[in-house]
Each structure stands twice: as C-alpha cells, then as structure tokens.
Amino acid sequence: MCYVKLGAKSLDTSGRGIPFKFYTAYYLSFYSRRRAKTLRDLLEGIKAADKNTLFHHLFHTIRSKHLIPPKYTNDFAHWVGEEVGDEELAAALSDISGAEPATIEDIRREIVEILEPHADDRAGRSEFVFVAMEPVVVETNYVANTLGEFLDMLEVVPGESIVYHFVTRRVLDGTGRNDFSTWLEKNFGLAEVAESLSRIDPLMYNSEEALRGAILKTLRRWLL
C-alpha cells in the first residue's frame, strides 16, 4: 500500500479502488450554411447555432497547437476585432470565462449579453463562417488506479485526452465538473485538490500542452 504526504496527513494513494479510464476525442469539422456579414448577423447566428458549433468556435484554439499565443481567445472575438475593427468589443468577447461550472449554454448567454448592445449593421471585411463540429470519442489503453499512475499518465496521454476530460465532457456534455476533479474527490476524498484544479480556466490556454502543464503544476503543488 502506497501513501503520499498531503498537508499534515498521509493519504492512501490507492483510494477507494475506482480506476480512471482515459478516453480521447477527435473533432470532425465541416462548414455550415450559416454566415454572418454584420454584428447583428453574428448575434443571431450565435443564438441559433447548435452547441457543437459554439464549442468549436470557442475552444478549438486550445486544440490548434499554437506556437505563438493568439491575440484573441475565440473566433468570435477574432472576427469582431480583425474584420469589424471593434477592438474594445473584441476584448470583451475575449474575456469570456470557460471556467467551471460553465456549460456551453452558460457561455452562450454570456456572449449574447456582451454582444447584444453592440449588434448593429457594422460589417466585417469578410464574412464569418460558422463551422459545425462532431466529436468522435475513442477509448485509450491508459488506466490509472493510483495517484502515482494518474500523474504519470497525465504526462504522456495524448493532448486530445486532456482536453476531452477537462473541457469537452464538462462544457459540451454538461457534466458540471472536469473528470479529473470528480475522480480525485470521489476516489480519494481530495476535495481541496479537486477544487484547486477546477479553478483553471481552459480558455486562458492556447494549446493542449499549455493546459496540460497548468493541470500538472496544480496537482504537483498539492501532491508532491
């Protein structure tokens, strides 16, 4: 039986015997028929778009493996800033939070609240094209039974797996919490560790590896 030191107490790293099974997801993207020429069109498109389309435009930056951090955190902010030229509105859209417990519908409401007072006939230099998306979930061979195995696997699982468990399941499927925090609290009773992890906002990271690094840094601070 293995233990780690957590504050003033020792913790059984095998927990309650609930394994963590890693999955990964790939996202098939395709152009939809919906276009936006003006800010008003963009607002109406955001109101009408399905949740997968919104998820693509908000979170695909994390999956794009950027070498240089983008100026804006999502496609809506980028279009408003670069094509319409309203940098103040773009900055407000770029500040949208993707932190827990936000679901895709929570984020939609926040975008609409920000955009609606400014949704006029100002046009972009080019149209905004709404891109539809369909996630394809794939099982991996990674299964963690202990905290040590979990930390080791977080370093080597595909970046898409990190995004799936930390972002996709919560935001798109509406689970309310990332899978890592749920497992840490349910299996080990690590409520404080889970809460610390839950405070990470994935929209603040421009790549899978940056998000992975933030997760590992948080866990190591508590567990090692």
From TrEMBL:
Q: Which Pfam families match?
A: DUF5752
Q: Which organism is it from?
A: Pyrobaculum oguniense (strain DSM 13380 / JCM 10595 / TE7)
Q: Which domain of life does this protein belong to?
A: Archaea
Please report the name of this protein according to its UniProt entry.
Uncharacterized protein
